[in-house]
Structure formats: structure tokens, C-alpha cells
Write a structure and sequence with these properties.
elongated, mainly alpha, 57% helix, 5 helices
């Protein structure tokens, strides 16, 4: 999780590129790409699983692999939730990123399916 959190910290900064070396700028771009690719892939997966869900009965073990992101306005909202989760639970920083990022996202935006619609 620490690798993801470290990469996503760059999205929280607003810096003047004139104050950084070429190497620092390239490192920042790489971190930004790592964060965005990870968050976009994971959020797309969690949301599509929720959209295609054909049951209303999810076990707690399954629940963190689904998220209803229909009310999320920006990718930044998702990134901020993952960063907040990491601050609340620093004991997970050395564990698998996708697992804890999924928990952060699915706890904030749970998949609540109403099949009567």
C-alpha cells in the first residue's frame, strides 16, 4: 500500500515546474501515472462489478470487491479516500495495495443493489 500512497501523494501537490529539475519532473510524472493507472483500473473494476451484480446478497468478504461509483464526481475523490484510509490505518501500509484500496473505496461507496428497478 505504501508504494501506491507514495505515488498518489503527487496528485495532492501543486508545484511550479520551474522549481524542479528535469529528473524530479520525470519522477513526478511516473508517480502520477502509477497512481492514476492503478486507481482508474481498480475503480473501473469495482464499479463494473457492482453494475453487473445480479444479487442483493453480498457477504462481507465479497463486499469489498464491489463499489457504486455513480455519485463520484472526480478521480481525485477516489484518490483522497485511499489516502485517508492509509492515514487511518497505517498498519496496512506494508500490505497488498489493491486489497486495501478496494476496502477504502468500497467502504466509502458501497454497492447497494436494488433489483426491483
Amino acid at each position: 500500500m505504501f508504494f501506491l500512497v507514495d505515488a498518489c501523494q503527487i496528485t495532492q501537490q501543486r508545484n511550479n515546474p520551474n522549481n524542479f529539475s528535469q529528473d524530479e519532473i520525470l519522477e513526478g510524472r511516473e508517480k502520477y501515472s502509477t497512481c492514476m493507472n492503478f486507481i482508474m483500473s481498480l475503480s473501473t473494476t469495482l464499479n463494473s462489478r457492482c453494475i453487473n451484480l445480479e444479487t442483493t446478497d453480498l457477504s462481507p468478504e465479497e463486499n469489498f470487491t464491489y463499489a457504486d461509483l455513480s455519485k463520484v464526481h472526480t478521480t481525485q475523490d477516489i484518490i483522497q479516500e485511499v489516502l485517508l484510509y492509509s492515514k487511518r490505518f497505517p498498519q496496512f501500509d506494508n500490505q497488498i495495495a489493491w486489497l486495501h484500496a478496494s476496502k477504502a473505496i468500497s467502504q466509502k461507496w458501497p454497492c447497494i443493489k436494488n433489483l426491483d428497478k
